């Protein structure tokens, strides 16, 4: 795969993953608002636990989907031989852990770097989302 193709495909799949992350976090915001209203008669402990739990489930779903997308990419482009290796490499790369036991060929390394950029950005966005959500929960509950 040439440099131009690596950049093109890497950008497209990064964009797809980021669109999924943004859509799920936006939907999560709406779900949390609805649940906050439905659970308003419950104790603050249970309401806040439920809200944080829903947010964490959505975030885990978003990251899992993105890891699977990259695994599909590795198999689809015949970069990695089997699903076990593709899922493993996708997860290790997405989290930027990078053990180094599975290494891409020189013609796909730039493409592979896009998976780690996807993970960095998505994990950063998820963290910001959780911090903002927790700040709003604390503002409304801790002072009273």
Automatic annotation (TrEMBL):
Keyword rRNA-binding: no
UniProt key word Transmembrane helix: yes
Entry keyword set: Membrane, Transmembrane, Transmembrane helix
Transmembrane segments: 6-28, 49-77, 110-135
Pfam families: Ion_trans_2
Potassium channel domain boundaries: 67-134
Gene3D superfamilies linked to this entry: 1.10.287.70
Official protein name in the record: Ion channel
Record lineage: Bacteria, Pseudomonadati, Pseudomonadota, Alphaproteobacteria, Rhodobacterales
């Amino acid at each position: 795969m040439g440099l131009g193709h690596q950049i093109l495909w890497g950008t497209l799949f990064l964009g797809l993953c980021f669109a999924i992350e943004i859509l799920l976090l936006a939907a999560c915001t709406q779900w949390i608002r609805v649940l906050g209203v439905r659970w308003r008669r419950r104790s603050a402990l249970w309401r806040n636990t439920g809200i944080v739990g829903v947010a964490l489930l959505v975030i885990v779903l978003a990251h899992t989907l993105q890891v699977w997308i990259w695994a599909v990419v590795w198999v689809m482009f015949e970069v990695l031989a089997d699903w076990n290796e593709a899922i493993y490499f996708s997860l290790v790369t997405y989290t930027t852990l990078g053990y180094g036991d599975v290494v891409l060929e020189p013609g796909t390394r730039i493409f592979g770097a896009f998976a780690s950029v996807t993970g960095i950005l998505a994990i950063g966005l998820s963290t910001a989302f959780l911090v903002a959500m927790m700040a709003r929960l604390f503002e409304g509950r801790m002072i009273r």
